[in-house]
Amino acid sequence: MSLDFLLTTLIIVASPGTGVLVTLAAGLSAGPRGAIAAAFGCTLGILPHLAAAITGLATLLHASPLAFQMLKAAGVAYLLWMAVRSLRADGPLAAVDGSSERSSGHIVVNAVALNLLNPKLPLFFVAFLPQFLDPASPQPIADMVRLSGVFMALTFAVFAVYGLCAARLRRQVLTRPGLVRWLQRLFAAGFLALGVKLAATSLR
Fold this sequence. Notes:
It comes from Pannonibacter tanglangensis. By secondary structure, this protein is mainly alpha-helical. About 80% of the residues lie in helices and about 0% in strands.
């Protein structure tokens, strides 16, 4: 495992995106437990894409404009729905009891769904990860799983840090209704911007 892989992966994971927004919102609304649940959900959502890459489905997606467009359309629709929900009282920034298993479960499911509908992840496993695989290795799948495990570990760690930092500000934020409304608009704008950016994404 090269230092280049670790640094590049860290940059990719730490860059603001859907997972970061979801984890920040979970930390603000549900506290530390919600932050960890969101980080776990985002990490768990990587597994289907890894499985697709190993079985060749990601390569098919990369080669099929129609399949890519369908997945992208679903992802854009979900991001736009999240943008609308962010403005609602029961949206991602709604104050919930962080000790509630249902709340944590809902956060995990939502984070997994966002990653499942992210067409960039399967392309990551097709276009990015193979660059760090040894073509002479007798166990390429094992190498891919190992590098993917590092990617997932960094994803969980970075997202957990984002979420826990947000959770520390939870009390100060939720006691200021004006600030909450401002954050709702900010998160809605963020999800909308990500939806527009995803809509403009192409295979090449």
